[in-house]
Amino acid sequence: MVDIERANATAVGRMMEARPILKGLAVARDVIPSMKDNLLLHAGPPIEWARMSGPLRGAVIGALLFEGLAKTEAAATAMAEKGLVEFAPCHEHNAVGPMAGVTSASMKVYVVENITHGNKAFSNLNEGYGKVLRYGAYSDEVLKKLRWMNDVMGPVLADALAASRDGLDLRALLAEALHMGDEGHNRNKAGSLLFLKWLAPLVAKVARDRQVEHDVLQFLGDNALSILNPVMAACKAMADAAHNIEGSTLVSTMARNGTDFGIRVSGLGDRWFTAPCETPQGLWFPGFTAADANPDIGDSTITETAGIGGFAMAAAPAIVTFVGSTPKDATNATLEMYEITAAEHKYFTIPTLDFRGTPTGVDIRKVVEKGIPPRINTGIAHKQAGVGQVGAGLVRPPMKIFEDALVAYAERYKF
Questions:
Q1: How, if at all, do strands 20-27 and 168-169 pair?
Q2: Are residues 181 and 190 in contact, defined by beta-carbon separation less than 8 angstroms?
Q3: What global pTM score does this model have?
Q4: Which of the ends of the chain has fewer CB neighbours closer than 10 A, N or C?
Q5: DSSP per-residue string spanning 290-305
Q6: Domain at 246-412: CATH code
């Protein structure tokens, strides 16, 4: 008989002891396992073109234009419809991406190494706010920014990271940012400033052009989400350290593609459990309503998987001005998550809860037994490609995926 408690203690212990270090920036095809030119990685569980949501389709079109694989929107659409493009989840290639999450072969990606256990994770660069690829936009303006990020900023960041002797300890950065009012998913103002503080001297050291140095630092400084993508890769590295622990009932992946919400469970290998995504509810940008919203999308729920994000809202009362509700509700959200998790994080602590560790390690047994799905805070994409973000709010995964996973667990371990 499998010892579930022991397996879960092992899994959550590995998740907490993982130490993700930002080591560098590289071209996706050179570092992401099995990456190739006609492969596009996307957020969430597996999905084919015919079932993709508007934002994901838009990001696919934009990536094909960015790569030069298609010259027009119509040509890109035809490639996808004819099966000339391969699609796979970022998660199945040790990667993550916010919102649509589309990552193509020539894009620069952050390289994060968990130096405790030796695994690596990758994430693309954050474009900032406005009309961006991750929300399905692919106008000339969007592609121009992507090319500047890839061809001008990318090499500077790569050289800057190479000039760092030890890399950036993202676990330590997150721990400090939680004490400064971040929760690591939708509020990253403190973390992004800490990132800029660490990175700026390195950029100044390696940049060969003063104007480029200025532009890179201003771009990063103006983007309160600049640290989100490295943080997501860090959380991916931590969660992957807890994956494939025999007998564990802990969730090691939570992700959405705009159509389906999927989870993977540590003791059940790489099998996905999916159900239709819910639509987040929250605050809407001027001119938009719930009728404009796409169902939940993005790999950024890897933050909640690792014990931050919606699970750490008590550390970030100001998040409620972005996602709705009240500071008391933010605290209650964190308190509720202790009901369905295996541990309190050793390194991520919340000052307003007397430095109690964040709830970490979602246990499918507890989710089903108590009827409490995880809490997630998230940006909300317009259902049509290219419109962009229309709001931010709160959402929960469908209970069915946890119920299905628990049934599969019982069958696998013969309970």
A1: antiparallel
A2: yes
A3: 0.97
A4: N
A5: GGGBPPPEESTTHHHH
A6: 3.90.1700.10
